[in-house]
Design brief:
alpha/beta, Pectate Lyase C-like, twelve-stranded mixed sheet, 16 helices, 53 strands, SACTE_4363, Pectin_lyase_fold/virulence, transmembrane, membrane
Length: 904
């Protein structure tokens, strides 16, 4: 067949191509190609269509007939989006021809010409020069954008069922034209048009308009205010005089396919009013290329930098102000990466130029899957402390955060990246689209939630869609949001904040789901402190028995989730104290935890404390009495699931329990930062630790573990781990006092309850390091084979000494003890059936507890006071004897050079 030419040739090629079946909304199999840009032809409103010569009309008419006779149009055809819109060189001719055919054919089939909307459509066809087609089937079937076109839509539906091919072709052409409405009405019908918290910018806007919108966003937010904002940057190159100052609770995201599609001159975060960056929380930047000579990203926790290209230098602090970050992933830096005053930082899949790392201070930097990091830079940054900078060679498995994409050819989508095993090091780059697992169309696949909806409305909406976009705002829930289907994607933009119902979770994920994604949300506790029990703010899976479904499933990814407990005015509780037993609990297996922060507030807006440059020193913060000090928390993060990998976990100020508890087998944690509470003595006197792996856990790996304590009270130990836990690069820091505030850095707890405690290998000022720790090793014996736990290399750190190797036969629930020096000697030991060592009250008990919690509130407080007094007296009475026993045990351990593991 010869090549078709002219205005409709490209459409004919698409229309005769075999189409994929299924809902028209699914175009995710392959990304649409970019259509050529066409300069729009501007015409005045209601101007008549230009006259056509008789020869032009005859030629177009003949071509249309030729095409329509052979075209087999299917409304679900993916090929429509490949139309060569550059072929429409005579838009006016097409408009005139459509007008003639439209009226004549409708009359022929007995339809009256209502005219409602038709002149507008014709005008759009005449003036539309935009190159992209936006899914005509939604126009044909009547989407929410075209509710004002009901008479015309009804006619089209009837025509679609009875008309010959030529009329169906005309209907599609008109639908395509309608999808690109006139510029004065298109934006008003977008999904975000009635959400003022979402600001969508376009490079075609004037510099004045861009600056005004960005200024409004920055001025709206505050440290503990209710305002939430999202700034979405459409693809293109933005004016050179536009700069983006990113404030609290603000997402700035380029919505191109990759960061190279959105080019901005500058986006930055500098020191706040205190001349520090230690309070620069809850903001994010992603999906952009920044061309400034120096990009400033002076942030602390909960401020991720993702999918970015920095053309020149990237500075992670501002001047000499302190900073306490931070997280970045999939970032390319073409100039120097200047760490500045950052205390700690985690970077995954970053690309740096040669000699691209520069730092003068800092405590704990982890680079995983990085390109361009050389030993010379690492040694220079260490400043003689070889554990400051660590490079982890590989990434066992990971998945990047889902993100919004705007495409001219198919409108708005959510791209969902693949879960990858051992991804290539460095920023993803131009191979990004090959790593997209699926795309969800905003129009059809995604439920758009707004803060004025009830929790039940949101749950009903979630049940009918494949994903949910949680838009900026405060969601005051009266029941938990519950994810019940595999493959579900929950993406928040603008730091949407879920406020928990009393005693209940903010968000729950049911058991045995596959490939669930949750990203970009905040969780706030609102259970009164007198309540008896509160469910985790995030509960991923239940604490029930697991089965084969759980073991085989790849259950999902939690990205950029930030939970907190504190007294804040916007909660509307009159600054009353609240509680959270556990802020985040992960019970399902095979999860990926990707940047989370659990925070018990150490300051708030309910306590007459104002941040100024003069009162942000340690003394005022340490001595001031905050309402949040009366709030209650037990654990920040609890991990019960098996085979869970975490990248970047931070927990701070939990007052009545361990900060992180990892009960699940085969866990891996890359980068941990904790700050022990300094407004309460209860935690430290009760010997709670920042990082706990119970003695019954046989396989756990952690690297880059930093635990801090501020001037005040001594801590018993920073970490309490099992004898089989492989921990590398442990850092403890005492801020404002001598390092002896930590009695022990790490304590290994044996199965019989005995302990071996360790001191750091070396200290500098108040910073103390422990590179590796001798431990027992476990390999699982399954189907006649030993399955070792595969771990990436950690450069510049010595390999830990293995004192004893155990082989666990998981099928028979037997353990085989093999001496590491004599592998022929085997002794079998029986092992107890695996039990849930930390049972949680069931739902019935929880409901009953909530029913009686208020009458028993006073009694609960009294019991709590008695318990605290008892713990305090007990710690005072046995401190000397216990410390002496531990010292003797540690001395024996060091002298014998062996470790004995007693199996129960």
């Amino acid at each position: 067949m010869g090549r078709r030419s002219g205005a409709f040739g490209a459409f004919a090629a698409a229309a005769t191509t075999p189409a994929k079946t299924g809902a028209f909304s699914r175009f995710a199999d392959e990304a649409p190609g970019d259509a050529p840009k066409v300069t729009p032809v501007r015409t005045k409103r209601n101007s008549p269509a230009p006259e056509l010569s008789l020869d032009e009309v005859r030629r177009l008419l003949e071509e249309l007939r030729t095409v329509s006779n052979s075209a087999k149009f299917q409304k679900d055809s993916d090929e429509l989006r490949r139309m060569d819109w550059g072929a429409f060189k005579k838009r006016e001719a097409v408009a005139k021809l459509l007008s003639i055919f439209w009226k004549a054919t409708l009359r022929k089939h007995g339809f009256s010409i209502d005219g409602a909307g038709f002149p507008n459509l014709l005008q759009v066809v005449k003036t539309s020069g935009k190159s992209a087609a936006v899914r005509p089937a939604f126009w044909l079937l009547g989407s929410s954008r075209q509710r004002g076109q009901a008479p015309l839509r009804a006619a089209l539906l009837m025509v679609r069922q009875r008309a010959p091919p030529i009329l169906r072709l005309l209907v599609v052409l008109v639908g395509l034209a309608k999808s690109h409405e006139a510029e004065d009405g298109h934006e008003s019908r977008q999904w975000y048009s009635r959400i003022p918290e979402i600001v969508v910018l376009d490079p075609s806007m004037s510099s004045k308009e861009l600056k005004a919108k960005l200024s409004e966003v920055k001025d709206a937010t505050s440290h503990f205010g209710p305002a939430r904002r999202a700034v979405l940057l459409k693809p293109g190159v933005y004016p050179h005089d536009m700069w983006i100052d990113i404030g609290y609770y603000t997402t700035v995201a380029g919505v191109g396919r990759g960061p190279e599609s959105v080019v901005v001159p500058d986006a930055w975060v500098s020191n706040d009013i205190t001349d520090q960056a230690t309070n620069n929380f809850w903001r994010s930047l992603e999906g952009v290329t920044v061309t400034a000579g120096r990009t400033m990203w002076a942030v602390s926790q909960a401020a991720p930098l993702r999918r970015a290209i920095v053309k020149n230098e990237l500075w992670l602090s501002h001047k000499a102000g302190y900073s306490s970050g931070g997280f970045m992933s999939d970032v390319e830096v073409n100039g120097k990466l200047v760490m500045g005053t950052q205390q700690q930082w985690y970077a995954r899949q970053v690309s740096l130029p040669p000699e691209g790392l520069y730092c003068t201070g800092g405590w704990n930097y982890i680079f995983q899957g990085a390109v361009g990091l050389d030993k010379k830079d690492m040694h220079a940054c260490d400043g003689g402390m070889t554990e400051k900078v660590s490079q982890v060679s590989g990434i066992p498995r990971s998945a990047e955060k889902p993100y919004l994409v705007f495409e001219e050819t198919s409108d708005w989508k959510i791209y969902v990246p693949k879960m990858l095993k051992n991804p290539a090091p460095g920023a993803i780059g131009k191979d990004r689209e090959s790593q997209i697992d699926r795309a969800l169309y905003i129009d059809s696949d995604v439920f758009i939630a707004t803060p004025d909806m009830s929790a039940s409305d949101i749950n009903r909406g979630m049940a009918t869609k494949e994903g949910m976009l949680l838009t900026p705002g405060i969601y005051r829930l009266d029941e938990p949001l519950v994810i019940t289907s595999s493959g579900f994607v929950l993406l928040g933009i603008g730091f949407p904040t879920l406020v928990s119902p009393p005693g209940r979770s903010c968000l729950q994920v049911t058991d045995f789901l596959n490939d669930v994604r949750i990203a970009g949300i905040m969780l706030d506790a609102a259970t009164p402190v007198l309540g008896f029990y509160a469910e985790p703010l995030l509960q991923w899976g239940s604490r029930g028995e697991t089965d084969a479904r759980s073991a085989e499933a790849s259950t999902g990814v939690a990205s950029d989730i930030f939970a907190r407990v504190g007294a804040f005015k916007y909660l509307g509780l009159g600054c009353a104290p609240v509680r959270a037993n556990t802020l985040m609990e992960f019970n399902s297996d095979n999860l990926i935890i990707d940047n989370v922060w659990a925070w018990h507030a150490d300051h708030d807006d309910c306590s007459n404390f104002t941040m100024t440059p003069n009162n942000n020193e340690q003394e005022p913060m340490l001595q001031h009495k905050f309402k949040s000090d009366k709030c209650w928390s037990q654990h920040g993060v609890v991990v019960n699931g098996r085979n869970i990998i975490a990248f970047g976990v931070a927990v701070e100020h939990i007052i009545d329990g361990h900060l992180l508890v990892w009960n699940g087998e085969d866990g891996q944690l890359y980068f941990f930062q904790a700050e022990l509470p300094y407004h309460s003595r209860l935690n430290l006197e009760s010997r709670y630790a920042a990082y706990v792996v119970p003695p019954q856990v046989f396989n756990h790996f952690g690297v880059g573990i930093g635990v801090y304590i501020i001037d005040g009270h001594p801590a018993y130990a920073a970490l309490e781990i099992s004898a089989f836990t492989d921990i590398r690069k442990v850092l403890t820091v005492v801020i404002g006092k001598q390092n002896q505030l930590f009695r022990h850095q790490v304590c290994q707890v044996m199965l019989d309850g005995s302990r071996i405690c360790h001191q750091p290998t070396h200290c500098q000022w108040a910073r103390c390091y422990l590179a590796t720790l001798p431990h027992g090793d476990v390999e699982f014996y399954t189907s006649g084979r030993i399955r070792p736990m595969v771990l990436p290399d950690v450069h510049l750190l010595p390999q830990p000494e293995i004192k004893q190797r155990l082989i666990l036969d998981a099928e028979k629930r037997k353990e085989v003890s093999v001496d590491f020096e004599d592998t022929e000697a085997e002794t079998k030991f029986a092992i107890k059936e695996d039990q849930d060592r930390h049972p949680r009250p069931n739902q019935r008990f929880a409901s009953l507890a909530m029913a009686v919690s208020l009458p028993l509130g006073a009694a609960a407080l009294l019991l709590l006071a008695v318990r605290a007094t008892f713990i305090f007296l007990r710690s005072r009475s046995d401190a000397c004897n216990d410390d002496e026993a531990l010292s003797l045990r540690q001395t024996a351990h060091e002298s014998e050079g062996t470790m004995t593991v007693t199996l129960i």
